[in-house]
Amino acid sequence: MSATGSPGGGNTTTRMFRKTSGAILCPSCGRITNADAQVCLSCGFRRPGLWGFGAPLGKLVGALDVTKAISAACVALYVLSLVIDPAAALRPRGPLELLAPSGRALQRLGMTGAFAWYAGHWWTLITAIYLHGGILHILFNVLWIRQLGPAVEQLFGPARLATIFTVAGVAGFALSDYAGVPFTIGASGSIFGLLGAMVAYGRQRGGVFGSLVLRQYGQWALVLFIFGFLMSGVNNLAHAGGFAGGLLCALLLGSRERRREVGLDHLLAFAVIALTVLAFALAFYQGFLAR
Hints:
With about 290 residues, the protein is mostly helical. It folds into two domains: about 10-50, no CATH class; about 60-290, Rhomboid-like fold, CATH 1.20.1540.10. Helix content is about 65%, strand content about 0%. The two termini are about 40 Å apart. The protein is globular. A hairpin with a 6-residue loop joins strand 1 (about 25) and strand 2. Helix 8 (about 135-155) runs parallel beside helix 10 (about 190-205) and helix 9 packs antiparallel against helix 12. Strands 1-2 form a two-stranded antiparallel ribbon. The chain is built from 13 helices and two strands.
């Protein structure tokens, strides 16, 4: 059964979700401007109304529990990596390789490394963040995500958390791929990026509270980085790159105390989410269909 409507119905529906006229808050400076203005009269930001999509993007990102979404994605992809090659996952191995997905399964899902880098598979810089090499690997990383995610969200906001997490992971893998690490996976680069964001906040905040944040999260980052050298198979380059990427991203975006989240932050978060979906679409196509 099909339905038709009046020519004006589409405009009514559009207006329910977009605000293309009237007063809005500029996504750059937070001051009142017009939704249809070419530039903000206060700061000169182009298209402050974001073509009417600023408010819907804010509601979409605000309704998303970023920490839970990241954790769920990691767990779901880990289970999928076991299902793809269950015989290899159940093969008896050492305690640190318990329930480890096979290399073939991880490659099909978007494992990164120098080989993927030189093959032009740029999307693996994103997809590899959500892949893990064993039950202990994913448990350790998800626990840290659940620990650090809410803290970063409280100080920076959910949209900036999504951006920092993704940028840090990509920065870490880009450094290790460029350095020639052949195969690598895991969210630890992004986790170090969250630590870097907290260190950036502590330095910017200053005072007693800022010093406490800087000391606590700086010590955690140092201990985890040293711990990485004591275990085999740890990608310390990704840790270093992720920490630097998260710290720089946090400094550029700023915390909630300096500037509340606005439309531009929501647009950046939506962009990294859309890019992540695209990356997995390309990985699945390359791994399962283009054969």
